[in-house]
Specification:
Blueprint (H helix, E strand, L loop, with lengths): L1 H4 L11 H35 L4 H36 L2 H28 L1 H8 L8 H26 L3 H26 L3 H25 L5 H23 L1
């Protein structure tokens, strides 16, 4: 790292209290959001283990592992887009951040929606192949998780967008609010729905927090949900033309 970054370093240590406070404050809120996000994503399993038999967690874990294949592109895209959005915010303003956010959400949904539909239609087959017949009860949980993944695409990219434009404090407290909402709703659903309560609670929470992030992004960067299907149509047309071009050569 030093070899590649050497030319950008001044090799002088001249700390400023204000600058240190600024960096600690910025990084502190991002760290807090990361911790909340980690606990948030596993809260359903943690509460299920507390309220039901510990063995019940195995079914949620099986569904979560399969669902991870869908979520990985979302998290990876958030990491990749962060520096691009930060640069766009500094050089071109919020309108460029809005454009990048809308396009990234649209592009991810182009992949996630077809995959989610496939999993929702064939959950038992996927559970059988990847986890075994003993986990067939996890099929419903997996279906619910797929719906959550589609909604969560907007939320993951929104949190990254807030951090990239310097609004880490707003992002942190929004994540904290989402965590509290999920904690209460999941507790209530486990009490009333039993085994599938945590999954149902996660779905309800996903819808509520998705709406919160939507209105937040609309206020902060001018996000338009109507732009998403338009971008998706454009990307699908490009994919179709490229596929058609490849097939015509063969």
């Amino acid at each position: 790292m030093y070899f590649y970054c050497n030319k950008y370093l001044l090799h002088k240590f001249n700390p400023s209290i204000n600058r240190v406070k600024e960096l600690v404050g910025y990084g502190g809120y991002i760290f807090g959001s990361s911790v909340l996000s980690s606990v948030f994503s596993n809260l359903d399993q943690l509460l299920t283990a507390s309220f039901l038999l510990p063995s019940s967690v195995a079914y949620y874990n099986a569904a979560k592992r399969i669902n991870g294949f869908i979520d990985i592109p979302t998290y990876a895209a958030a990491e990749i887009v962060f520096p691009k959005m930060s640069q766009a915010s500094a050089d071109e303003g919020i309108s460029k951040v809005k454009s990048i956010y809308e396009k990234m959400v649209s592009l991810l949904l182009c992949f996630i929606i077809p995959a989610a539909i496939l999993v929702i239609l064939l959950p038992k087959l996927l559970i059988f192949v990847l986890a075994g017949s003993d986990y067939s009860s996890a099929a419903v949980i997996l279906q619910i998780y797929m719906i959550i993944s589609v909604i969560g695409t907007l939320q993951h990219q929104a949190a990254t967008s807030m951090d990239s434009i310097g609004k880490t404090k707003l992002s942190f407290f929004t994540n904290l609010t989402s965590f509290i909402i999920k904690l209460m709703i999941t507790y209530f659903c486990l009490k009333h729905f039993g085994f599938y309560g945590a999954a149902i609670g996660s779905l309800i929470t996903s819808v509520i927090t998705g709406l919160i992030w939507y209105f937040l992004m609309k206020r902060e960067v001018g996000f338009s949900i109507a732009a998403v299907p338009q971008h998706m149509k454009f990307y699908y047309l490009i994919a179709y033309k490229n596929l058609k071009s490849v097939l015509s050569r063969t």
